[in-house]
Amino acid sequence: MINRIIEISEELSREHRKDPDLISRMETARQGQFPRFLMISPISRCSQDLELFGMAMGDAFRGTRVPGVPLLPPGRSRILWGGPLAYNQEFPDKRGVILTFEQDEAESMIKESLDNLALHPDIKGIPIIVFRVDYEQGRARIMVHGKGRNYELENRLLSRLQRPGSLDSSTLVLLCSDSRVRPPVTPQGVPMAIQTLGGYIPKYSGTDDETLQLAGFFAEWLPLDAASRQILILAHGNFEGEGPSCGAGRASLNPESVKNPFLRSVITELQHAALPFEHHQPKNAEERVKSLSLAIKENLLSYPAVHSFAESHPAHFIEILLIDTVSNVLSMTDI
Predict the structure, then answer these.
(1) What is the mean pLDDT of residues 106-134?
(2) What angle do CA 201, 91, 247 make, to 5 degrees?
(3) Residue from 333, 323, 180 nearest 238 by CA
(4) pLDDT tens track for 211-221
(5) Which of 300, 294, 318 has its CA nearest to residue 211?
(6) Looking at residue 316, what is its pLDDT?
(7) N or C, which end of the chain is more exposed by having fewer CB within 10 Å?
(8) 170-173 contacts: CB < 8 A, separation 24 or more?
(9) Domain 2-329 = CATH 3.40.1050.10
(10) What angle do CA 42, 46, 47 make, to 5 degrees?
């Protein structure tokens, strides 16, 4: 399946180069990223949310929430959404934070999530747009709240709604929050995704934090239709010779230069995670994200359900691939 996913990424890249708007966006992407939104989506719907709201390359920086449970306070969910929100603070044109929930998720859980989102030090002054979504029909409704709204923006997003494509619930990708990279299309549709800074997830801690939520997600997901499960770790950067590096990967080469204290703590964790897999000082961010990918794989295997599944299934259950920041073309890696 890996070869076919790579082929699809190449085919889509060729198609994109025929689209004047996408060509323009790719040129902009070479200069940097300037997203207008931070989108925090359930793992099971990350890819579909981009299609649902018609988000193109560069439109939305990404964060992640575990479906069925509330967002934790930022101090207990530094990686899944706290870090991406802190990184988002650096962008000049912040229109809003979009938070999505499935239509059957409890209203009390949504309220708790909003309360915890509002605790983040970098949310001040940014409108929060909350949607309850029927993904099968491509419909959504606004959730009313008192945490800061923008009615014009809410209506504009509602007007852009479109039914998303098929979900490949057998494939999970770990990918950077970067607005220029999208989860790759598989033969079955768009995959589930965890999008964080550098695609990083921490080791399972066994305490009441985001790793406990992730452990619950893995335990629920892996036993179902087990034979077809696949996890892809995607390291992004300048892998075709003409694009930008991963910003989080680059920052992790010198975390002391990061001024935002919340963000610095996350970037420092990325650095510390990657160091054991490096035999020399990385020459660039591309080398760093490759070693970080090995750390991510090791951390994945610390989750009980992932570890158990890996022991009884082929080694290629977890694969590491490279993805170019601009073209989004996938390639194999030599690590």
Answers:
(1) 97
(2) 45
(3) 323
(4) 999 999 999 99
(5) 300
(6) 85
(7) C
(8) 170/225, 170/228, 170/229, 170/230, 171/229, 171/230, 171/231, 171/232, 172/43, 172/221, 172/229, 172/230, 172/231, 172/232, 173/231, 173/232, 173/233, 173/234
(9) yes
(10) 155
Interatomic CA distance for residues 174 and 298, integer angstroms: 13
- Read off the pLDDT band of 227 (50, 70, 90): confident
Between CA 184 and CA 205 the distance in angstroms is 30
Which residue type sits at 42? Answer: P
Query: Any idea what the Cα angle at residue 168 is, between residues 23 and 21, rounded to 5°?
Result: 10
What local confidence, expressed as pLDDT, does residue 224 receive?
61
The reported pTM is 0.96
- Is residue 207 within 8 A of residue 293, CB to CB? The reply is no
Decide: 46 and 183 in contact? Cβ < 8 Å. yes
Conformation bin of residue 299: beta by default, left when phi > 0, alpha when psi is -120 to 50: alpha
Calculate the average pLDDT of the chain.
95
CB 198 within 8 A of CB 292: yes
Q: Which pairs from 303-307 meet CB under 8 Å and 24+ separation? A: 303/204, 303/211, 303/214, 303/215, 303/218, 304/204, 304/215, 304/218, 304/219, 305/215, 305/218, 305/219, 305/221, 305/222, 305/223, 306/218, 306/222, 306/231
Instruction: Compute the chain's Rg from CA coordinates.
Output: 18
Q: What angle do CA 88, 94, 100 make, to 5 degrees?
A: 75
By the 10 Å C-beta count (0-12 exposed, 13-18 middle, 19+ buried), 12 is classed as middle
